[in-house]
């Protein structure tokens, strides 16, 4: 049985952190330097009392209302997050209750970051193929900024908070193609929050300063930028080749490429290395930054609004990052 995306919506918190504010905290980084390096001008920050389930509920209600979706028809909830409300219970269960959805729905969280939306589509397609569900609500919701140290200028310039909601069903606006997925856990230490789990509980830690002037603390997000760049530069070109091969397509027959919106420098490097025409490469991070698992659905929604996606458009999506984890597929509109 084929699987389709029926509709997509997204939500960004009201509070905005722009480059001017960051430049005040870090005078050696001018507004122009930040925007030139990242392609990001502002990012949205979850309120102190706003958490993953709150954003998940808000974006799901928006999806139901804007697309005339009867929530009673949804029979499975997939929630991708690395910032759950609690260690347990499952945040998807909390969302099911707060949305007033049927008790017959299946619901689960899965812990992935930048590849999460692609993996969510793969899971949803599998549920439909196995006839376990017919209408899946796929939510991505992250509050990464709650785990970024105020003195970590590198990560503060890149990440923002946000959420998306997608209905995957047996009919819709685009067919979900075949997938290529990959994992390399050897890179786990290069994008990590070391404290807070069972292995390393939260505790007071001595802070250090790295060579770039960022404050490091094991209880906050750590990203080894050069290693992440090296991994991405190596893994993504092969990922694109494999996705094209599995979907019996060529580089030039894809109408639009929508990658995880990591940062503008990395994306342009990948585009040039793979040989993608700039006119076919979609960017949407200027006003929201890197929202982790939500970057691809946010970009897809805006590409549709911008009329970059229409009936007959082939779109290749690719996610890659923390884990290391990567995945891609083709959406046939």
UniProtKB/TrEMBL annotation:
Source species taxonomy: Bacteria, Pseudomonadati, Bacteroidota, Sphingobacteriia, Sphingobacteriales
Name of one Pfam family that matches: ACP_syn_III
Stretch forming the signal peptide: none
Key words, A-Z: Acyltransferase, Transferase
Domain Beta-ketoacyl-[acyl-carrier-protein] synthase III C-terminal: 246-332
Domain Beta-ketoacyl-[acyl-carrier-protein] synthase III N-terminal: 108-185
Superkingdom assignment: Bacteria
TM stretches of this protein: none
Stored InterPro entries: ACP_syn_III_C (IPR013747), ACP_syn_III_N (IPR013751), Thiolase-like (IPR016039)
Gene Ontology terms describing biological process: fatty acid biosynthetic process; secondary metabolite biosynthetic process
Molecular function GO terms recorded: 3-oxoacyl-[acyl-carrier-protein] synthase activity
Protein name: Ketoacyl-ACP synthase III
């Amino acid at each position: 049985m084929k699987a389709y995306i029926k509709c997509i919506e997204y939500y960004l918190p009201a509070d905005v952190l722009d480059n001017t504010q960051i430049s005040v905290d870090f005078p050696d980084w001018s507004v122009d330097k930040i925007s030139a390096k990242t392609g990001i001008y502002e990012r949205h920050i979850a309120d102190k009392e706003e958490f993953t389930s709150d954003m998940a509920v808000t974006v799901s209600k928006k999806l139901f209302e804007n697309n005339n979706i009867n929530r009673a028809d949804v029979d499975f909830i997939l929630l991708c997050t690395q910032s759950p409300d609690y260690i347990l219970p499952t945040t998807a269960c909390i969302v099911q209750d707060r949305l007033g959805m049927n008790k017959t729905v299946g619901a689960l969280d899965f812990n992935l970051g930048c590849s999460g939306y692609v993996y969510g589509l793969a899971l949803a397609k599998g549920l439909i193929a196995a006839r376990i569900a017919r209408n899946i609500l796929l939510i991505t919701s992250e509050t990464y900024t709650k785990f970024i140290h105020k003195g970590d200028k590198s990560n503060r310039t890149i990440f923002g908070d946000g959420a998306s909601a997608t209905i995957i069903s047996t009919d819709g606006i685009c067919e979900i193609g075949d997938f290529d997925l990959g994992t390399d856990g050897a890179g786990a230490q290069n994008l990590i929050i070391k404290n807070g789990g069972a292995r390393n509980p939260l505790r007071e830690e001595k802070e250090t300063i790295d060579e770039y002037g960022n404050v490091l603390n094991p209880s906050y997000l750590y990203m080894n930028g050069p290693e992440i760049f090296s991994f991405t530069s190596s893994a993504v070109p092969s990922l694109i080749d494999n996705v094209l091969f599995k979907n019996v397509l060529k580089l030039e027959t894809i109408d639009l490429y929508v990658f995880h919106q990591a940062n503008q420098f990395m994306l342009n490097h990948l585009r040039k290395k793979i040989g993608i025409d700039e006119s076919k490469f979609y960017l949407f991070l200027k006003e929201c930054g890197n929202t982790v698992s939500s970057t691809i659905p946010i970009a897809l929604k805006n590409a549709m609004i911008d009329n970059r996606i229409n009936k007959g458009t082939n779109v290749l999506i690719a996610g890659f990052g923390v884990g290391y984890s990567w995945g891609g597929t083709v959406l046939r509109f």
